[in-house]
């Protein structure tokens, strides 16, 4: 099972919620073209996560190297935010390294 929910409180700010339970694999979280206003970039301001023991999650744009690796539980606020590496990236992906349960909340700003 893999579900993603998107909500926006304005034309600029948005939140992504992802819930996953299952086997190892790569899953698309977000297609930028589906966002209102078609922003060319996103800036992540924070992430809150709960990941089952022994499981690890990598977040990456298109086919690039991971920009974030998460495990366990936590909340991270990024001073200045984490920007997409380049303009016009297409898809935010999530690679789950082993079977488990993953819950992610990502706060972002459209740019």
Outline of this structure?
The protein is mainly beta. It has strands spanning about 1-10, 15-20, 25-30, 40-50, 55-60, 70, 75-85, 90-95, 100-110. The protein is globular, with a radius of gyration of 13 Å.
Average pLDDT, rounded to a whole number, is: 82
Shape: globular
Low-confidence stretches: none
- Strand-residue fraction? over 45%
Q: What is the fold-level CATH name, i.e. the topology?
A: Jelly Rolls
Radius of gyration: 13 Å
Alpha-beta content class: mainly beta
Total count of helical runs of at least 4 residues:
0
Number of strands: 9
Shape-level CATH architecture: Sandwich
Give the terminus-to-terminus CA distance.
31 Å
Kindly report the spatial arrangement of strands forming the biggest sheet.
1-2-9-4-7
Q: Tell me the domain tally.
A: 1
Which CATH class? Mainly Beta
SSE blueprint and pairings:
Layout: E1 2-8, E2 13-22, E3 25-31, E4 42-51, E5 57-61, E6 68-70, E7 73-83, E8 91-96, E9 100-110
Antiparallel strand pairs: 1-2, 2-9, 3-8, 4-7, 4-9, 5-6, 5-8
How would you describe this structure to a colleague?
The structure is a single chain. With about 110 residues, this protein is mostly beta strands. The chain has one domain: Jelly Rolls. It has no helices and nine strands. The model has no long low-confidence stretch (mean pLDDT about 80).
Features:
111 residues; mainly beta; Jelly Rolls; four-stranded antiparallel sheet; 9 strands
């Amino acid at each position: 099972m893999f579900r993603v929910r998107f909500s926006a409180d304005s034309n600029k700010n948005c939140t992504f919620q992802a819930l996953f339970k299952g086997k190892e694999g790569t899953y698309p979280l977000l297609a930028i073209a589906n966002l209102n206003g078609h922003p060319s970039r996103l800036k992540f301001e924070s992430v809150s996560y709960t990941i089952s023991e022994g499981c690890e999650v990598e977040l990456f744009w298109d086919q690039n190297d991971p920009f974030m690796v998460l495990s366990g539980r936590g909340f991270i606020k990024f001073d200045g935010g984490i920007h997409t590496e380049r303009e016009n990236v297409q898809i935010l992906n999530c690679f789950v390294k082993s079977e488990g349960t993953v819950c992610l909340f990502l706060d972002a700003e459209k740019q």
